Amino acid sequence: MKVCTDACLFGAWIGRHWNDVDTTNLNALDIGAGTGLLSLMLAQQTNFSIDAVEINEDAYTQAKENVSCSPWENKIHLHHRALQDFEPQKKYDFIFSNPPFFEGDLMSGEDAQNLAKHHAGITLAVWLAWVMPHLNEEGLAAILLPYHRVAYFENLLNKNSMYLQKQLHVKQTPKHAFFRSMLLFSKKENTFVSPCSMIIYEAEKQYSTSFVDLLKPYYLNL
Q: What is the pTM of this model?
C-alpha cells in the first residue's frame, strides 16, 4: 500500500482542522488505517488518543513498525480486526477514514487489493451506519472519497440526519477535472460552508501554493 498524494492531502487537511483545538483527553478513530499514515499525521499535529483499526495483516504489521519508529507511539493504539468486530467501550470525538472507495467498480485479480480498495465486505452505507452510534454528539467525522462518489455520500448523510461542515475538492492540474473530495461532517445541523477547491500542480512538476502550504509540515522538500 503505497503512500498516495491524496492521502497525504487528507491527513494534512484533517490535522489543520484541529490545529487550534485542545485535543488533550479527546479520542480519535482511524478506520482502515493501512500502514498508519493518517494516524501518524494526526498525531504529529494533535494530542488525540488515536485508535487505528486495520483488517489486513500485512498492513497492520507495517503500521505497527511505522508507529513504533515514530515519536508518537504512545498516542496510537492499533487493532488488527474488521470494523464489524471492533467493539470500543467509548465514543469518539473524531472519526476519520480513507476507505476502500472503488465500491461497485471493476475488481482487480488480487484479493488483498480487492479488500483494501473495494472492501467487498463493507459499503459506504455500512461504514456510516457504524460511525453514527460511535461518534460523540459534539464529534466530527471525515472521509476521503473519489469526486464521483460525493453526491451518493451526501445523500447518505441526508438520509441519516448527518450534516456537512466542510468540503474540499481536489484536481491534479487546472486542466483536469476534480478527482478526490474530502468531507467533514457531524450530527449537528449548522450553516454549511461552501465547498473549497485545490489544485495539486500549478504547472508541470510545480506544486501549487496551497498544496505547499498544507503539506510543508510533513514533506521534507517543499
A: 0.90
